[in-house]
Amino acid sequence: MNRVEKLSTTLFMNRVEKLNTTLFMNRVEKLNTTLFMNRVEKLSTTLFMNRVEKLSTTLFMNRVVGWELSFTEDLSELRQIYIEIKTRSEKNKYHYKVSNELKYKQS
Description:
mainly beta; 4 strands; elongated
């Protein structure tokens, strides 16, 4: 895709062996992904983008074996990444925010 104003994806699944997502885009205003899953063996997301205004990913999962997010472009134009992983017990929440570097916070 050349330009995307808003890309939103919602998945409701019981069990996923492998979920692989690859995006080739020039400019994205807002990318929002929400996953409701019971168990995921491997979740891999690769983004080939020139400019991203806002990237938001929320994962509601009971068990995650492996999760990977990779970028192949310069992150100098990326203003913020927000990723939240919630378990069923709501005990572990992970918040990732990026402004040109990855910062990790666990609450």
